[in-house]
């Protein structure tokens, strides 16, 4: 595709200044304009470059960690650089999307993926281009996720992570875990230089969940690559919380009882009823989860409504729900990982069954947890995950740390390089996250503060009460966190709070840890009357990691 093809379109779009941009030394939207930055990426080899204009492309998109789903129509130069690490037999695609010069805001924004996918492609990047960013993402050498994915791509690492039974694809796991992230940044900056004739004024990276893990990996290992990083619900302890997440399903298998979703939801509702007001306000949000001592066994026998059928809460159901809330515990009482908080929806990931109309139910795991056990730990596609002994399960929780912590975890609390590079970092975590146990994120940030008592000068962490995984839930979502990050990086305006809004339009300020959002006044019946402020979180003095030897990072 040549310059002449892009130019008339740019003019038709009223993008006349593209000409001046190009005249200023920039390149055209064709492969010949770009070079693979081999001199900066030893150990790689280019497999090809494509570049062609995308015009008036319409897609649904949202920035990571927001519920701002919108339909956008964008035009940009679509650049793909494909490369390999010779000897590794990998093929990595980096996609750089370059708006026309006069639409470019001078900045780069990189996006992460989620689950087992390194990228969600256009689902995130289109909104970035619409705001004027040059954007980048990498597939890290395996298949991308997308809005259309039914779960196969994001919720299992199969087939790419297993080369043959017994052997994982170490190269692709390392690509995904870390090195593709730095390479992506170098490639994006080279493409920007070639196209616009200048480097980005500022570079940002944003991601949620698996993408939040990628964000934290960049902050920890590749300090100079991005000026501002937004890490939402980051999967920093991916190697542990993923296999540990299977615990409730494992307990289900042991009991031979598979609760219907309505029963699980009834336990969750009972916990919310019991603990909602512990934070001072009745709003269906458990904002002080550490105060919630609700025991599900205490409501066994109570009736609940299952789509019009009255049923009773069972003791087995209580044990299973408690497994999801407590997290795996070995017979000796050792904790394998944390559970989720009690206002999190358990039927999304932790406790899944399929039932007939008479509530004869069978297990129906999501894939997210069990596929880690099957492909990365047992390394056997035929492994019967519902038939593990407890001893096997805890052996796997040890094995996963040995084999994958260094490769995939992003839980090193030493952010001194990022600080020295002048970077700014915002992390936020929904307390009603139904996938990632909030205590893992909190424990990490406690360690950051322990290492550097001045960490808030560049890295702030915010709890979002009542917010689910990445977005969703009844709590207020900090949709503007990325803009606050930009202000922090570019204007030095540190976020004292993150401004968040719930689905009813109520605005809440999220507090920087170790502060927590605290009810001050107002009537819960009129949510607009509620006033909160930030006060020191009493639970913050409980250093979560101290209790658990496995937290020490090596
Ligand atoms: C790449 O390797 C060459 C030759 O060994 C070396 O001179 C150069 O400094 C290396 N570049 C980087 C970015 O590591
Ligand atoms: C792109 O959209 C603009 C604005 O709606 C329109 O003027 C232009 O003709 C479109 N270009 C193409 C190639 O469809
Ligand atoms: C961008 O280019 C890649 C590689 O050629 C292609 O697969 C993709 O469909 C293009 N994107 C759009 C929106 O056309
Ligand atoms: C390289 O990877 C491809 C799949 O991407 C596979 O089909 C092929 O067997 C691999 N080659 C070697 C030598 O491992
Ligand atoms: C999370 O940590 C707090 C201590 O701050 C503790 O009280 C609580 O039980 C933990 N929750 C889970 C689910 O592990
Ligand atoms: C039970 O739930 C059904 C719908 O799921 C509803 O129509 C019915 O009114 C409920 N019954 C009671 C007693 O709440
Ligand atoms: C479950 O495991 C036991 C031994 O650990 C084995 O004897 C049994 O056949 C397995 N059951 C299934 C259904 O695979
Ligand atoms: C797991 O590792 C811990 C710490 O190294 C050890 O104490 C424990 O016995 C191990 N558990 C199993 C099941 O191997
Ligand atoms: C920085 O501050 C100036 C002056 O208040 C304002 O115009 C500009 O929008 C701010 N930029 C950002 C990125 O916040
Ligand atoms: C928050 O509100 C409480 C209750 O009104 C008050 O005691 C406290 O001083 C306030 N704290 C701040 C930091 O404003």
UniProtKB/TrEMBL annotation:
Keywords: Calcium, Disulfide bond, Hydrolase, Metal-binding, Serine esterase, Signal. Residues 1-21 form the signal peptide. It comes from the Eukaryota. Pfam families: Tannase. Its EC number is 3.1.1.-. It is an enzyme of class 3 (hydrolase). One of its GO terms (molecular function) is metal ion binding. InterPro entries: AB_hydrolase_fold, Tannase/feruloyl_esterase. PROSITE patterns: PROKAR_LIPOPROTEIN (PS51257). Belongs to the tannase family. This is Carboxylic ester hydrolase. It comes from Diplogelasinospora grovesii.
């Amino acid at each position: 595709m040549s310059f002449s093809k892009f130019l008339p379109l740019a003019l038709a779009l009223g993008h006349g200044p593209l000409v001046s941009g190009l005249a200023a030394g920039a390149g055209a939207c064709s492969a010949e304009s770009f070079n693979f930055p081999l001199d900066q990426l030893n150990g790689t080899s280019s497999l090809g470059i494509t570049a062609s204009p995308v015009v008036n492309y319409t897609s649904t998109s949202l920035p990571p960690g927001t519920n701002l789903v919108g339909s956008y129509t964008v035009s940009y130069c679509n650049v793909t650089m494909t490369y390999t690490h010779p000897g590794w037999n990998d093929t990595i695609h980096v996609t750089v999307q370059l708006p026309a010069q006069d639409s470019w805001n001078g900045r780069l924004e990189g996006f992460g993926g989620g689950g087992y996918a390194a990228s969600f492609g256009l689902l995130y990047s289109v909104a970035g281009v619409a705001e004027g960013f040059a954007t980048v993402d990498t597939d890290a050498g395996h298949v991308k996720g997308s809005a259309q994915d039914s779960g196969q791509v994001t919720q299992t690492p199969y087939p790419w992570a297993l080369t043959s039974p017994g052997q994982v694809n170490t190269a692709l796991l390392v690509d995904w875990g870390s090195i593709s992230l730095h390479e992506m940044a170098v490639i994006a900056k080279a493409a920007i230089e070639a196209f616009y004739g200048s480097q980005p004024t500022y570079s940002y990276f944003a991601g949620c969940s698996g993408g939040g893990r990628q964000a934290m990996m960049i902050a920890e290992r590749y300090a100079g690559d991005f000026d501002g990083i937004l890490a939402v619900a980051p999967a920093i302890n991916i190697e542990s919380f993923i296999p540990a997440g299977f615990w409730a399903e494992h307990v289900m298998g042991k009991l031979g009882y598979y609760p219907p979703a309505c029963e699980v939801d009834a336990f969750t509702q009972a916990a919310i009823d019991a603990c909602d007001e512990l934070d001072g306000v009745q709003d269906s949000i458990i904002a002080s989860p550490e105060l919630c001592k609700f025991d599900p066994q205490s409501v066994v026998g109570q009736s609940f409504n299952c789509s019009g059928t009255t049923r009773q809460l069972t003791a087995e159901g209580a044990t299973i729900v408690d497994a999801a809330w407590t997290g795996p515990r070995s017979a000796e009482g050792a904790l394998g990982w944390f559970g989720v908080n009690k206002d999190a929806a358990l039927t999304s990931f932790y406790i899944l069954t399929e039932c007939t109309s008479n509530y004869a139910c069978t297990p129906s795991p999501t894939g997210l947890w069990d596929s880690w056990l099957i492909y990365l730990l047992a390394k056997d596609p035929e492994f019967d995950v519902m038939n593990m002994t407890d001893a096997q399960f805890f052996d796997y929780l040890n094995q996963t740390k040995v084999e994958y912590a260094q490769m995939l975890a992003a839980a090193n609390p030493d952010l001194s390089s990022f600080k020295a590079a002048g970077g700014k970092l915002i992390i936020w975590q929904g307390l009603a996250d139904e996938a990632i146990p909030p205590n893992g994120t909190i424990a990490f940030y406690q360690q950051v503060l322990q290492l550097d008592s001045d960490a808030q000068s560049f890295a702030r962490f915010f709890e979002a009460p009542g917010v689910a995984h990445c977005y969703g839930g009844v709590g207020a979502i900090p949709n503007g966190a990325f803009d606050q990050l930009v202000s922090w990086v570019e204007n030095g305006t540190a976020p004292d709070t993150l401004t968040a809004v719930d689905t009813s339009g109520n605005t809440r300020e999220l507090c920087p840890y170790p502060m927590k959002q605290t009810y001050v006044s107002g009537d819960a019946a009129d949510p607009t009357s509620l006033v909160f402020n930030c006060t020191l979180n009493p639970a913050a003095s409980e250093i979560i990691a101290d209790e658990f030897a496995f937290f020490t990072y090596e």
